[in-house]
């Protein structure tokens, strides 16, 4: 076999890093991806479809239909060549004729693949991770139709969306963990600062406060110590955690980490004591010191000592931990400075004001306002910092002295009652809440100061909350779309989700007529109090707005009164209560065929994230609509096929009847006609499930009722889905048994009955056992000859297993048939 | 088959555009003891009904060229010649509410017993 030359992009480190960032490899199958490959098979009419991700040494399948292995080596990969063309489909009509694949093991051996079409999976940054590919066992010189190519691209975009969603969730969890960490650290720092102001000149109390705060802010620390310079040694003055036994320990300045830090006055991060240059190796074991962060404690230019945190594990501390420790050292320095100067002073007003001003967090000091009964009804701004102004979008200088209800008319009551609670109880509280009139979300902490005052420190988290809402909306959209079966139900569900998620006043779906001349808006979703705009509208009546939609781009207007495209018709828009809107096109074969519309009664800036969300919803609806159309087409085809099959069977009956016209005995002709009829009854039942399966009881009833009244049969057994082959075999078998029973057996007498019972036996290889027992008929005598076709059919048994036992009991015929359950039953979900 | 009947034969108009299926339909009519009159199209069937008054039953296939031709014929017979009985065969599912009153529809492939019984019942 000639050596395979893979495209160099396969092993591009940037591409492999991008693939790694999705953390998708070797994860379990998920229905979202499985649905996509199933749909790809149906839309492209192929037996095999794969979501294939190409690593440096293998291709791994996140989802697969019609392909046994979950991964292959790159030797067998066709998808690797799809990586070379991020902008187009890779289509190989005959893999045996293409030099890249003619020697591929999957082409020359099992499963003998012949046709390949793959749509690249391209990240937003332009890296190709692999492909969504469809494969056939026959060459296909004509390739894919334009529609199939469009569908495959749309599905590949859906795969990427699923992957992006996954990456966004991972990133969100990471960001949350980081935010949480930073929040805890800030709290520790703030508490430490607050505690220091309350302390007098008790040096040990100051050091205890500081080391407790630092240990809290850096959870990786197992032990901590403040080591103060005493002559030419460092003394363990205040100790925590694993270092508690070493209170008072003195170590030298030379050859120790703390000494190195003190000498150089530079913060130090030691990743691993075993390899670090400045460490006293005799201390490693007793102090359980494997990694550490150490910062100098200074007052002005005077070196007081070092603050050190350590762990028994290597690489326990990050650069961020070192940064945090420096902050604590800064606080310590100011605390120690005061202590050593015996100033006995509280932190100066200037210090706090500076801190207050530099904070990125919003900071408010408020004072509650009570009514005559002493109940808190409002609160007054005493002081706010510059960040407060940025986070609320209000000039801070205008609010001091006014109450919150005056500054934000109609604000939610919780913004008053919760802070009132803090003042009443003295318990601090954390909150995550929206100021509805601003459409902005805040997360923060409120704590009591003195008397009627409280302070709030907070951050804006609108972006995070809205991103979460959009993610959840997409997930619920996927669920809803999967369950819905009609196109109007899908567009309505999507409209509602879009409207609610974007906080819009109206959302809907409209079909485009002509070259974006008219729009027929279907039943739309509206916020309470808003009217519907369902019906036909002409685009030119609303301004010069057709061009972007004709190009397939979104039409985005933030303010109809100022946008040059709509301002001349602003009153028309306002007549519909529309001040801002988006039309997001849905494309089919390069044309805009429908749009998603979102309206807002007030002007607003549509963010790129919101537009991306809408694009995504439109894509999802497009794919789901394609799925429904494919199913509808399949149903029509099935009905047509059933009709032709039945008509053809009628013609077969006619041909047989006229061919056998010379036969004087009519009985064989009629027996033939009835066998054809029995076969057709099984098809009727199979048709209800598109020929994939049939209910066992329904098959039995449809063939037996052709013979005589159903009340002469007693059916007794568990109903199950059986395979098409089993349905045909069962109906022919029962037809012959019933024909015989009518002619010679129990059913030839008025009182005769037949019991048909079935059960499964055996656990290793389960077997279906079918019993036919007649009673109440004339006395039975065994047949004298081997009989004709009917008897042969009965002896062949179920599914041709020949496992048929006939007992000509004089009371009535009893027959038992056996077949492997696995061949009879199909599992339909 | 009809010769043992003492009275005049009972005529059944058989409407079918497929010659092979026509053989079967005729066979069923004869087996029921009636006299078939063949029409190869809806138009021919209407012409026969307009010129003869001795047709008591029409036996038509609903699957003929021009998909709904058979059903239209049935509906116009019920409209123009209300006393005539209607027996129909079809390979497609039918909507019971669309069937003209007293009409009987049977499926394909053929169930000879039911078809013959239905012709006999109308002829009686």
From TrEMBL, chain B:
Which GO terms of type biological process are on file? phosphorelay signal transduction system
Q: Which residues cross the membrane?
A: none
- The 4-aspartylphosphate modification is found at 61
Reading the lineage from the top rank, the first entry is Bacteria
Protein name, UniProt field: CheY-like chemotaxis protein
Q: What is the lineage of its organism?
A: Bacteria, Pseudomonadati, Pseudomonadota, Alphaproteobacteria, Hyphomicrobiales
Q: Would I find Magnesium among this entry's keywords?
A: no
Residue intervals of the Response regulatory domain? 11-123
**Species in which this protein is naturally found:** Methylorubrum thiocyanatum
A matching Pfam family: Response_reg
- Answer yes or no on keyword Phosphoprotein: yes
């Amino acid at each position: 076999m000639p050596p395979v030359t893979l495209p160099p992009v396969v092993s591009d480190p940037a591409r492999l890093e991008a693939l790694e960032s999705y953390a998708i490899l070797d994860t379990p199958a998920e229905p979202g991806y499985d649905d996509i490959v199933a749909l790809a098979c149906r839309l492209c009419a192929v037996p095999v479809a794969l979501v294939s991700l190409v690593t440096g040494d293998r291709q791994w399948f996140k989802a697969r239909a019609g392909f046994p292995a979950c991964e292959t080596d790159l030797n067998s990969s066709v998808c690797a060549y799809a990586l070379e063309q991020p902008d187009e489909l890779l289509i190989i009509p005959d893999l045996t004729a293409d030099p890249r694949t003619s020697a591929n093991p999957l082409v020359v051996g099992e499963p003998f693949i012949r046709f390949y079409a793959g749509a690249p999976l391209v990240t937003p940054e332009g890296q190709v991770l692999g492909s969504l590919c469809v494969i056939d066992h026959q060459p296909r010189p004509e390739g894919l139709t334009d529609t199939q190519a469009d569908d495959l691209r749309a599905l590949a975009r859906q795969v990427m969306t699923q992957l992006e969603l996954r990456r966004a969730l991972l990133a969100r969890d990471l960001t949350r963990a980081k935010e949480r960490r930073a929040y805890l650290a800030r709290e520790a720092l703030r508490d430490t600062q607050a505690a220091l102001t309350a302390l007098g000149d008790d040096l040990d109390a100051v050091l205890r406060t500081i080391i407790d705060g630092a240990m809290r802010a850096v959870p990786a620390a197992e032990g901590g110590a403040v080591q103060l310079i005493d002559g030419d040694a460092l003394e363990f003055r205040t100790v925590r955690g694993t270092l508690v036994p070493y209170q008072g320990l003195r170590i030298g300045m030379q050859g120790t980490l703390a000494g190195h830090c003190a000498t150089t006055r530079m913060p130090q991060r030691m990743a691993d004591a075993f390899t670090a240059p400045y460490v006293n190796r005799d201390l490693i074991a007793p102090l359980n010191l494997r990694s550490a962060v150490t910062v100098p404690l200074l007052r002005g230019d005077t070196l007081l000592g070092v603050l050190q945190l350590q762990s028994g594990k290597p690489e326990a501390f990050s650069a961020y931990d070192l940064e945090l420790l420096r902050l604590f050292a800064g606080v310590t320095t100011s605390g120690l400075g005061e202590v050593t100067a015996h100033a006995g002073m509280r932190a100066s007003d200037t210090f706090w004001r500076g801190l207050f001003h530099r904070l990125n967090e919003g900071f408010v000091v408020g004072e509650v306002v009570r009514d005559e009964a002493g109940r808190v009804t409002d609160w007054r701004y005493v002081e706010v910092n510059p960040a407060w102004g940025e986070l609320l979008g209000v000039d801070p200088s205008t609010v001091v002295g006014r109450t919150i209800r005056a500054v934000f008319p109609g604000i939610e009551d919780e913004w008053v009652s919760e802070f009132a609670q803090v003042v009443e109880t003295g318990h601090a509280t954390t909150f995550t809440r929206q100021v509805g009139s601003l459409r902005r979300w805040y997360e923060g902490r409120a704590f009591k100061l003195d008397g009627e005052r409280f302070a709030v420190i907070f951050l804006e988290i609108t972006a995070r909350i809205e991103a979460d809402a959009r993610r959840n909306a997409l997930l619920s959209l996927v669920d809803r779309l999967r369950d819905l079966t009609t196109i109007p139900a899908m567009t309505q569900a999507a409209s509602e989700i879009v409207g609610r998620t974007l906080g819009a006043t109206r959302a809907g779906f409209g079909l485009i007529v002509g070259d974006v001349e008219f729009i027929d808006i279907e039943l739309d979703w509206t916020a309470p109090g808003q009217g519907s705009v369902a019906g036909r509208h002409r685009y030119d009546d609303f301004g010069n707005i057709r061009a972007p939609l004709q190009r397939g781009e979104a039409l985005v207007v933030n303010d109809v009164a100022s946008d040059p495209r709509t301002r001349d018709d602003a009153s028309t828009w306002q007549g519909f209560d529309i001040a801002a809107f988006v039309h997001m096109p849905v494309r089919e074969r390069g044309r805009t065929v429908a749009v998603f519309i979102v309206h807002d009664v007030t002007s607003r800036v549509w963010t790129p994230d919101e537009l991306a969300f809408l694009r995504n919803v439109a894509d999802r609806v497009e794919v789901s609509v394609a799925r429904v159309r494919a199913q509808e087409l399949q149903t029509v085809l099935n009905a047509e096929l059933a009709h032709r099959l039945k008509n053809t069977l009628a013609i077969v009956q006619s041909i047989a009847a006229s061919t056998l016209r010379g036969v004087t005995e009519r009985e064989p002709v009629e027996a033939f006609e009835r066998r054809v009829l029995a076969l057709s009854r099984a098809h009727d039942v199979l048709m209800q499930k598109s020929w994939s399966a049939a209910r066992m009881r329904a098959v039995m009833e449809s063939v037996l009722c052709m013979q005589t009244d159903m009340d002469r049969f007693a059916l007794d057994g568990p109903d199950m889905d059986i395979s098409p082959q089993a349905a045909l075999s069962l109906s022919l078998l029962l037809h012959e048994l019933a024909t015989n029973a009518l002619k010679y057996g129990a059913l030839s007498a008025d009182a005769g009955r037949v019991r048909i019972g079935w059960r499964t036996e055996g656990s290793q290889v389960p077997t279906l056992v079918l019993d036919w027992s007649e009673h109440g008929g004339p006395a039975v005598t065994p047949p004298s000859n081997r009989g004709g076709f009917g008897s042969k059919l009965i002896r062949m048994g179920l599914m041709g297993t020949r496992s048929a036992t006939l007992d000509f009991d004089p009371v009535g015929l009893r027959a038992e048939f056996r077949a492997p359950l696995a061949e009879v039953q199909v599992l339909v979900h | 088959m009809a010769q043992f009947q003492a009275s005049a034969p009972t005529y059944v108009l058989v409407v079918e555009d497929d010659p092979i299926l026509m053989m079967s339909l005729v066979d069923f009519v004869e087996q029921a003891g009636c006299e078939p009159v063949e029409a190869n199209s809806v138009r021919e069937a209407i012409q026969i009904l307009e010129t003869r008054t001795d047709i008591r039953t029409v036996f038509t296939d609903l699957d003929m060229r021009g998909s709904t031709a058979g059903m239209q014929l049935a509906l116009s017979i019920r409209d123009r010649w209300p006393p005539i009985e209607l027996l129909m065969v079809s390979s497609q599912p039918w909507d019971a509410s669309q069937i003209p009153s007293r009409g009987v529809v049977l499926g394909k492939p053929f169930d000879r017993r039911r078809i013959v019984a239905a012709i006999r019942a109308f002829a009686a």
